[in-house]
Write a structure and sequence with these properties.
The structure holds two protein chains of two kinds.
Chain A: H1 22-36, E1 53-58, H2 64-75, E2 79-84, H3 96-104, E3 110-115, H4 120-127, E4 131-137, H5 143-157, E5 164-168, H6 175-186, E6 190-194, E7 210-212, H7 215-219, E8 224-227, H8 243-250, H9 254-257, E9 265-267, H10 280-283, H11 290-308
Parallel strand pairs in A: 1-2, 1-3, 3-4, 5-6, 5-8, 6-7, 8-9
Helix pairs in contact in A: 1-5, 1-11, 2-11, 3-4, 5-6, 5-11
Chain B: E1 2-7, H1 9-27, E2 33-38, H2 42-57, E3 63-66, E4 100-108, H3 112-122, E5 129-137, E6 149-153, E7 160-165, H4 167-170, E8 174-179
Parallel strand pairs in B: 2-3, 2-4, 4-5, 5-6
Antiparallel strand pairs in B: 1-8, 7-8
The chains are: A alpha/beta, B alpha/beta.
Chain lengths: 318, 183
Amino acid sequence: MSVKAAPRLRGKDLVGIDPLSPGEIQLILETAEQMRDIAARPIKKVPALRGKTVVNLFMEASTRTRFSFEVAEKRLSADSLNFSATTSSVSKGETLVDTALNLEAMQPDFLVIRHQYAGAPHQLARILKSSVINAGDGAHEHPTQALLDALTIRMRRGGLEGQVVSIVGDLQHSRVVRSNILLLNRMGATVRVAGPPSLIPLEMDKLGCQVYTRMEEAIAGADVVMMLRIQLERQGRMNFPTVREYYDFFALTPERLKLAKKDCLVMHPGPMNRGVEIDSRVADGPQSVILEQVTNGVAVRMAVLYLLAGGHGEPTAD
Amino acid sequence: MHRVQVLDARGVARALERMAAELVERVGDEKLLYFVGVQTRGVPIAHRLAKLVAAATGHEPPVGALDIALYRDDVGPWRAAHQQPILRDTELPVTVDGKVVCLVDDVLYTGRTIRAALDTLMDYGRPRAIHLAVLVDRGHRELPIAAEFVGRTVPTSHAEDVQVRLKESDGEEGVWIAKEVAE
């Protein structure tokens, strides 16, 4: 049984995977698959979002995601404005809501926000008339990352249903894992997670995944292994003795990868800590689809922008 | 729903044969010809025209498919249904550069689809010329666009709906004019 795509997105915003139905997820993935082709054209730009303004409000460091959104916006002919916390009035003490209201007074159509606090995009979505897209909020959600991961699996495997996806690493600080568990469950995949006990949040299993503390058990027979970055900058205190020991127990090495299915896909949301959570021989190996994830990221963000630009509310007669 | 048939399967076949013959005569060098169907029903019609040109000349022109959704002028807030057009495949098996492209669609109405198709095509290359072939011209143009090859001109009112049904996509074949009737 494959999920039938919804005719449209119901919401004004994309704040997380949680509010999306399977049909809406399917619509985004099918649209993104078409968007991929635009990068192969002689002119890599379509006029669909001409005259739309997108504010990229990044309150936290990001290269890949910010770049990816910017490329997506430009490919759709939208005008992008980039806002970074360090060079703005945020450093003078302005609140997030005031910043957002001031930006909205300049009539943007979209606000893409990355923020260190969970729920920041949700708060703005309630206040603002523009469409808010969550580009990562604290350790909560990162919906476009989960969508691009799903697109990568779907394009390689033809679908998500029945796939066994093992996610290994820092589960405590990862928004990627939360969005992925929600999405993969909704689309009929099985999710296993593993990490050191000190980096597994309480009641992790309630999200709908099988929790392991030994990596080998989690990846045995898996279709996809997704490695999470050890977020060294978020470790208030050391949750494991040394990086070397982490590598010994939780790094994806060529030997460990042999436990998974023979054609198991290797994924990583980036940026990678080579030699910490992933061995270079695996990261650069034939099963790695890490750079495909980056390519698909642009397509997924184009799809989300395009679909949200259709407006929202109850459909009226055409 | 009240439905009146204006072309049956034989009528469609005859119209396409005539259009193919006119095309060959007009283009001269059929080796330059390239059929590009507008998604969705323009695509099977483009394939049929290419087959007819092949039967007449011995050379089968390439056929492509063009999706114009991202070039429409009614995406975004102009769209009442809050629903963006579904994206379909664009497949151009050979480059359009230097080719005599024949755009193919089922129905020509406001001309807005063809405007979008022209812009889409231009982003893929620089054809030597672009012609337009449609199975039905129902009038009511909103843009200065005309088709050189027309299967049947059908005068209609805005309230009417022109339905083109093809074996390939619909299981039945023919052209109907449908009108909502109050019971």
